[in-house]
Amino acid sequence: MAGELVEAMNMVKSFRVSDLQTLLASMGRSKSGLKHDLVGRALRLVQTEYSPELLKNVRQLYESRFPKASGWLAARRPEGVPVAYSSLSSSPTGTQGADYLNGIPKLSSTPAAEVKLVSLPFYQTLETLLPPTELIAQNSEKLQDSQCIFELTQSQADQVRNSTELRPGMKAIQVVLRICYTDSIGVQEDQYPPNIAVKVNQSYCHVPGYYPSNKPGVEPRRPCRPVNITPWLHLSTATNRATVTWGNFGKRYSVAVYLVRVFTSAELFSQLKHCSVESAERCRERIQDKLRFDPENEIATTGLRVSLICPLVKMRIGVPCRVLTCAHLQCFDAIYFLQMNEKKPTWTCPVCDKQAPFELLTIDG
To answer: At a CB cut-off of 8 Å and minimum separation 6, what does 206 contact?
Structure first.
């Protein structure tokens, strides 16, 4: 249900005034007011009175405007605004030579369409070099080696070679390797198998290590991120070989290789500031809703207190930011939040610990 709620809210954000008025009228709500008033009213309606009928109305209105668009990612940004991320499993496949895994032709392996990888805000997929393909154990040994073979086109190699550097040794255009559980149900997050090691063209790549824990009895946590294999590739049309060493302990994993553009926290903040700012009028409405008298409730709210100190860094908030699905008014600093998720991605609200995905962030007006 949470996924459908997010989908509906993102669709509502892309509606025109006429669409918003139609939606509100169909649900017996007032359709008067400026666009930001209508958007706020429609979002509140979706949050508080979510139902199959409402979802159907939202989808019909959205599909009437975007007949060829699919999924909530298309609804996240207004027209003409570049998207900072995309579904890695649905990206266009680049022109390749024959791709193999464990010496088996790609056509004989697990169908790639069954596994869908979660989209990542800091990565925009440009090409799919190897679609999600299952790691297959060759024997009964606990430690397995699986080889992937792929090639870059000349255009792809030039893109990587000529891209700018985000910092020394890290290019903006990269080739990354992602691993997840092999599961056709739901969208899969990156998940490393035990004893993972990645070798590209006979050279070992850096795989993110464990975060140390300062709490007694708590095991260190390993961030499962895309593995940047760019420095070890042949930036030409020559064949590249990636070998994944993994522990075979009963779970099934899939591996995929993508050509991506990497975004910085500053670039994500620029996009957030450009297209996800909540108006001051909407903020006032939210406060009024909190203070509105409810005759059915014996307890009435007579005052609200929020802090100007960011709960993340304990400093004054510079750019107040909230999550659309959170009920609290307390904000946190957008810049620090994005910077911290760039280094250690958790995407969790620092106020209430609920999920805070990038597509639901909004700057408080």
So the answer is: 227, 228
Mean pLDDT, the chain, whole residue set: 81
Residue 164 to residue 177: CA distance in whole angstroms: 20
Q: Which CATH number fits domain 265-365: 3.90.180.10, 3.30.40.10, 3.40.50.150, 3.30.930.10?
A: 3.30.40.10
Tokens standing for residue 288: 């009024």
- Say if CB 167 and CB 267 are below 8 A apart: no
Q: What is the pTM for the complete model shown?
A: 0.65
How does pLDDT run across 177-195, given as a tens digit for each residue?
999 998 767 788 999 999 9
Nearest C-alpha neighbor of 12 from the set 364, 359, 365: 359
| DSSP H stretches of helix in the chain | 2-13, 17-26, 35-48, 52-65, 73-76, 154-162, 265-275, 280-291, 334-343
In angstroms, the CA 252 to CA 188 distance is: 12
Interatomic CA distance for residues 238 and 248, integer angstroms: 31
Handedness of CA 311, 312, 318, 321 (dihedral sign): negative
